[in-house]
Specification:
24% helix, disordered C terminus, three-stranded parallel sheet, six-stranded mixed sheet, 5 helices, Purple Acid Phosphatase, chain A, domain 2
Length: 258
């Protein structure tokens, strides 16, 4: 990472993720993109990731994942059928809610169901192609940031009052504090989505892209960037700790413990 061998740090932090997920008996782990640093991953990085996913599967913890701007959607599309065998649901590209864009997860005790609307990273140059998948997109804003607001609203199409409704997205938002190491071209303020565009029907918004862990106070519903669990460059922000966030239907987002 950033030219430094940090194998021991990666091993320790991934051990912590599995340990905390097991101890807290989490219902699901959300990976909101930028799992890798580069679109072409090293064999060592793959080994770390896949071994961790297998350990989570053995603990009975399902995973939902989307690619960020650091990853290749095509690679994740190819891996998706294999990862499904170990309980990892990958949404590799933008899809309408009824065509694979949402994933349903049952809680451990079977008392609740989460609907996870998955919005992978959409580059500005690819926005028109993504929007074309949705009915009525010809009436959406042409401006990227506000057009993404229309796309977010469309992704909430299968949210229901009796479900835990989660939007997981990889994007830049207005007011987010950068952590350092983000790709400058993807954090242009002109491309920042207003948090006010997050759907009021969401119980929680799980965000990736910005490396600094933070809540978004301007969002109408609880919304948080997970941040980098391991600093990309040591002089940047303090790393995020593994975040256990509980939420239920009707905007009941419970206090995170990390």
């Amino acid at each position: 990472m950033a030219g430094r061998p940090r194998t021991d740090e990666f091993a320790a932090v991934l051990d912590a993720v599995v340990r905390i997920a097991r101890e807290e008996q989490v219902d699901c782990l959300l990976l909101s993109g930028d799992i890798y640093e580069h679109r072409t991953s090293s064999p060592e990085a793959d080994q770390f990731l896949f071994a961790t996913l297998v350990r989570l599967h053995r603990e009975g913890i399902p995973v939902v994942a989307i690619p960020g701007n650091h990853e290749s959607p095509e690679r994740w599309r190819a891996l998706a059928p294999l990862l499904a065998e170990i309980g990892v649901r990958v949404v590799s590209e933008v899809r309408p809610p009824g065509a694979g864009g949402t994933v349903e997860i049952r809680s451990r005790d079977g008392s609740e169901t989460a609907v996870v609307a998955c919005l992978p990273f959409v580059a500005e140059r690819h926005f028109s192609s993504a929007a074309a998948l949705f009915a009525g997109a010809d009436r959406w804003d042409r401006d990227y940031a506000h057009g993404m607001g229309n796309l977010i609203a469309a992704m909430a199409g299968l949210f229901r009052p009796d479900r835990v409704n989660i939007l997981m997205a990889h994007l830049h938002t207005e007011g987010a504090l950068l952590g350092g190491g983000e790709s400058e071209i993807t954090v242009d303020d002109a491309c920042a989505v207003p948090p006010a565009r997050f759907p009021a029907s969401a119980s929680y918004v799980a965000l990736g892209h910005i490396h600094r862990p933070q809540a978004l106070p301007r969002s109408p519903v609880p919304a948080r960037y997970a941040g980098s669990i391991l600093q990309r460059i040591r002089t940047h922000h303090p790393p995020a700790r593994p975040l256990c966030e509980g939420c239920g239907p009707q905007h009941d987002a419970r206090t995170p413990r990390w």
